[in-house]
């Protein structure tokens, strides 16, 4: 009878051991699961980060490749605020429809801001179709901006004859000539201050200082026909001075 109960006792022991091992295994598995979950750091969405990075790069690129435009614009109403006088700026450009100061400066290989300065233009630098613009020259060595003037022989002869006949005796005065022939150079007008600095009738040379809004400009004049008190004057060049 005792021998018959031994197998049953062994079976119960084996079953208990198996159950215990299963429980231990489950406990280990649950412990590992909760430990891993508690130590896992949430990762950002890679696609979202890439999208934000792309948007940021695009915004930065847009900012750096599209600076504030300084190119002046022009309108369509034609005007002629720069008149052609007997002695006039050597290079005059009549503004074409759609042209800007930037394009005009590039055409003559000079900074458009210097063109604006020579014509007395300020912000927003508007120019009009049909307007005559003075094109200055710039000496890179001396850093001098100047406007060259010219007078053709036929005009000079007629002016000299009129002066000799007593019709235009004002042309015998370099200051008067400066006032009427200034042609809007550097924004100067007839009403600004003009002072004779030098007059040499033997050489046929004169210098006049024009002043406007605390800025000074020197006009060099010459006698294109005859020297002396009976010779007419014409502007040769004008440039800023301190």
TrEMBL record:
The chain crosses the membrane at residues 15-36. SMART domains: LysM. It comes from the Bacteria. Keywords: Membrane, Transmembrane, Transmembrane helix. Residues 91-135 form the LysM domain. PROSITE patterns: LYSM. Residues 41-85 are annotated as: Disordered. Residues 59-76 have a biased composition (Low complexity). InterPro entries: LysM (IPR018392), LysM_dom_sf (IPR036779). This is LysM domain-containing protein.
